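Researcher: Batch entry, complex prediction.
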Amino acid sequence: MSILVVGSVAFDSLTTPFGSVDRCIGGAATYFSVSASFFSDVSMVAVVGDDFGAEELKVFEGRRIDTSGLQRIAGAKTFFWSGEYGYDLNVAKTRDTQLNVFADFRPQLSEAQKQSDVLFLANIDPDLQMSVLEQTERPRLVALDTMNLWIDIKRSSLEAILRKVDLVVINEAEVRQFTQEANLIKGARQILALGPQRIIVKRGEYGAMMITPDAVFAAPAYPLENVFDPTGAGDTFAGGVIGYLASRKELSDAEFRRAIIFGSVLASFTVEKFSLDRLREVTMAEIRERFSEFRHLTHFEESE
Amino acid sequence: MSILVVGSVAFDSLTTPFGSVDRCIGGAATYFSVSASFFSDVSMVAVVGDDFGAEELKVFEGRRIDTSGLQRIAGAKTFFWSGEYGYDLNVAKTRDTQLNVFADFRPQLSEAQKQSDVLFLANIDPDLQMSVLEQTERPRLVALDTMNLWIDIKRSSLEAILRKVDLVVINEAEVRQFTQEANLIKGARQILALGPQRIIVKRGEYGAMMITPDAVFAAPAYPLENVFDPTGAGDTFAGGVIGYLASRKELSDAEFRRAIIFGSVLASFTVEKFSLDRLREVTMAEIRERFSEFRHLTHFEESE
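Model: Structure tokens for the complex:
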């Protein structure tokens, strides 16, 4: 089963309490694709400048990732983000954002991409998300992420695309910002009322929560003694969730629950090193082992 | 099996985004005792003024609570706390604290209390916690709570009592404050290094985490659409945890996990109304039903 992802491929400059790194590989579509490719074929629609060279492209090589939809614009620069984290690793402070090639990005799908089985609309302008969705032959699962910027400046476009997706994967703070509702469950239900069947709320070190009209599922984050760099954790999580789901025939509630655990496992690797350094070296055996540890982390028995 | 609890019985004046209440019943020992009494016999050591009358004492009546150790000081006033919550119900702002009778509180245990099976040292001056522990014939389980004030002004006393307890039940922010360690797991392990076998970290709306030298257990909070007043949630949680444990012969890891779920269930009732208004009307059937719902909230299966 094939996943189509549209989103950013970027260079990031990062400072955490544990170190700094300059112009490392980043971008939502990058983290998402590498993560999802452990389970399914992924096809990217994204854009880079010619500063994103052969060395950088290696991050996608030897994986189930089709980069034929990754445009490379000669004489232009790749999207750049610079951010900083304090000891509260849940909150990034943006130092600089340079859209560069992303400013004029108009995604065009190939014929094969239009037939994708699953679509993930990573965090980009909701009008671009809509243009991608409209080019497809309605995949069996369409999921979206977004950010505070679009809630602020493109609310009606965001509402329009929210009405057309099956699954929303966003941060807790974005649920509260979008709905102006302090209670997370109430806020999530307001978003479901727009049309999506499910919402998965990302809560950083507190894990994730899935809300459907008739159930709630809560999963902790994998407890790590060394969280080095949280950049990309949310996109890696989404990649694990969607990647696993795309590999399944039936999208039952039980499969969604397992998908969330796989997403949490993948994200727990990403934060162990800068950029995709840890994610690139992870093996499926390590992923399965950590999945099993999640069982022990959350398991309890009914009384006698 | 009997529990001895030492801690505050109080009047609280509270403001939440959903309303205000003046001089309602509060105090850590109050919430703890009512919660624990669903599972075990509880004996209190606490002090009130004569403003805490027959009407107030009804909160303990008809329950497995022995109030013979609740001193009533004529002509004096009960401990008073006034606090306020914004939409972020995880953080209380203290408006006023009046120690009143609590300022001269010197707990004296009865012969029966000295033989208690389990001891819970609720959040009071760590020197008083030590004096209570020293009067006992070392119960089979000793647990303690504390607060930011004692970490600030009585650190060495707090360290001394921490070295003598089996179980620590404190807030996430207190772990970070006490250890000056941003990573919760690392911080918890620093506290375990002092002597306790287990620490249960209270995380408000994010649930609870238990850390032992060789395992971590994470449980979400019960998802509620209407959280009305978080006051007493942590003490109610501790009451459920300790109450359940005191009712068990063996204190295995599996029992601790169930205890945390029962604690979370009890706490989820407390926050639904002001003061102990909801906790007072809860039935064991409701508690068991919500316990079962926790299974569905956290349950996932291994892949096929």
